Automatic annotation (TrEMBL):
Record's keyword terms, sorted: Sigma factor, Transcription, Transcription regulation
Family membership noted in the UniProt record: Belongs to the sigma-70 factor family. ECF subfamily.
Name of the protein this chain belongs to: RNA polymerase sigma-70 factor (ECF subfamily)
SUPFAM superfamilies recorded: Sigma2 domain of RNA polymerase sigma factors (SSF88946), Sigma3 and sigma4 domains of RNA polymerase sigma factors (SSF88659)
Length: 180
């Protein structure tokens, strides 16, 4: 069975991955652009400064480009690439001694939505690293519990318990802010 037969035949992304594996630089560039926002959000869940996030994404792109030939299943590109982004983000974090808490801003339509969005994102930034990462992957990247489990190499039960703890902590944080 050829490599191209192993992936879903109708998937444009899988075909782009195959081209990238075969050395097509523009195909890899297309993939990087396609997954940039996802990668940025995942890295943002670990790192705070935009410059650190950009460093991690650049390192992840280089590492992925150099090792994409080792990817055996084109359909697994997203989880494979996100894992590289996570690893590189932690590498950048290890090199940094102090990370200030930045506020996340995101334009939404009403002032109340802006305040709620900022409150939620700030609350997420206050979570422990392990809770923050699963929260971003689950709620912002729409990954399933099973996908997160495989991606982080932890049991599904651990993902569920981290999500539960994160929800409880977010509820506590946001409740305290409402009381103020």
């Amino acid at each position: 069975m050829e490599f191209t037969e192993q992936c879903q035949l109708g998937s444009a992304t899988s075909l782009t991955v195959i081209k990238a594996i075969q050395g097509n630089k523009s195909a890899f560039s297309i993939l990087f652009k396609e997954y940039y926002n996802t990668s940025y959000r995942v890295s943002r869940s670990i790192l705070k400064k935009d410059s650190d996030i950009e460093d991690a994404l650049q390192e992840a792109a280089i590492k992925a480009y150099k090792s994409i030939i080792k990817l055996k299943d084109a359909d697994l590109f997203k989880s494979w690439f996100i894992r590289i982004v996570i690893n590189e983000s932690y590498n950048v974090l290890k090199r940094k001694t102090h990370l200030p808490l930045d506020t996340l801003t995101n334009c939404t339509s009403t002032p109340n939505e802006i305040c709620n969005d900022i409150d939620i994102k700030n609350a997420i930034l206050n979570l422990d690293d392990d809770l923050r990462l699963v929260t971003v992957l689950y709620y912002y990247e729409d990954l399933s519990i099973k996908s997160i489990s495989k991606l982080l190499n932890i049991p599904e039960g651990t993902v569920k318990s981290r999500l539960s703890r994160a929800r409880n902590k977010l509820y506590d944080i946001l409740s305290i802010e409402e009381d103020i």
